[in-house]
Amino acid sequence: MIASREIGAPLTTRVLRTGVEVQQIACDWRDLFHHSRATAFQSPDWLLPWIEVFSPHKIMMVEVRLAGRLIGLAPLLVYPRNSERCLAFMGGGVSDYLDLLVDPAFESEVIREVLKAISAQEDWTVLDLTDLPHHSSLLRTPLFQDHSREHVQCSVLRLPQSTKDLLDIFSQRQRANLRNARSRLQRAGGGVIEIAAARNVSDFLDDLFTLHTSRWSGQGQPGVLADRQVREFHKSSAPRLLENGLLYLSRLRVGNRTAAVIYSLRLADTTYCYLQGFDPQFSSLSPGTQLMFSVISDTVRHGMRTFDFLRGQESYKQHWRAQREPTFRIQLPRAALSSAHAAQPATILGFFGL
Predict the structure, then answer these.
(1) Which among 124, 177, 197, 252 could bridge 291 via Cys, Cβ 3.0 to 4.6 Å?
(2) What is the pTM of this model?
(3) CATH topology for 2-153+327-351?
């Protein structure tokens, strides 16, 4: 345990190595999550099921507490890659943004303590932090500025203040397409948009699994939801996310059949459009487009200002006039951190930009 009193109160850092230790801090983790600028992918309702299902080989979660209160959490792990042992964030493979959680009032203190803690660990050789959002505090750390670069592109739509103004951000042709699709749906007998609740969230997921996998298999590819562990992860995480107000799972029903499903996450002023699927037999009714517009409209009605289509450059995202926004990747060898940790205290502070 590393202790410091530089900010006038006991500051302690601990490295958690087991799933049991991580589970024990779930309540404090959730409190910190709601006080940080983390994305929905750093929620304990997302990452705890990830740990349970994917069973990472070596957990290295770093917690920082101020007078006993959790003010920082770095959900890290170590995994082998060729001859290297990579220190990376948990959640890889199913998460579009990865990052640490920091109380904004103690950003510099938390980053300093996390870096000191991981530099003291000897079971990794290279730091590889991927999918960092542009607002990550790590990207403002001088140590990392020469070691960060753009990673993948996300697509983000900035929203107006009212649903009346929403249509104005689309072209006249897009507005006409929406009206025509709505008319075709009405002539086909109409449709009903449903929102998942605790009693039926599993049914919604089953529809999503079926439609998403069918779409990708039609292109000769398995699709991410064809993986058993990924489906198990979502079956485990969705009820927890729903209970804590983070999941917004919707579907469009035509008659007694599901024509489209959209799985999204919501936090603060942002809706994250995570996965979707639609039945190609209803393609003439544009069910995916109609459901997407409904989800975007509901985002505006709830006072949210950002609709994030997440990573990938699929053409439909540009159809909604989303703007590209990169994530970032930080890579550097352990030796760089170890040399800073071994330096004099004044040198360490300058090295970390603190």
Answers:
(1) 252
(2) 0.91
(3) Aminopeptidase (3.40.630)
